[in-house]
Amino acid sequence: MTSLYYMLISSLVGGAGWYLGEFWGMGAAFIGSTVGSIVGLWWAYKFQRAYLE
User: Fold this and answer.
1) CA dist., res. 41 & res. 2, Å (int)
2) Which of 20, 24, 26, 50 has the most CB within a 10 Å radius?
3) Is the pTM of this model over 0.85?
4) How far apart are CA 45 and CA 53, in angstroms?
5) What SS3 class is residue 45?
6) CA 15 to CA 6: how far, in whole Å?
7) What span, in angstroms and rounded, lies between the C-alpha atoms of 9 and 1?
8) Residue 41: what pLDDT?
9) pLDDT of 21
């Protein structure tokens, strides 16, 4: 269940990066989706830790 939250959040934020890339170019889309996925995973990890404790 936990990994599903990670996948959901990272793919949502990564998808937002790709959407913005439509306006800024493919380089920005790649960077945005990569950074967005990392931030999404980190945020999900922090949220899960706070929720479980």
Assistant:
1) 11
2) 20
3) no
4) 12
5) helix
6) 14
7) 13
8) 77
9) 65
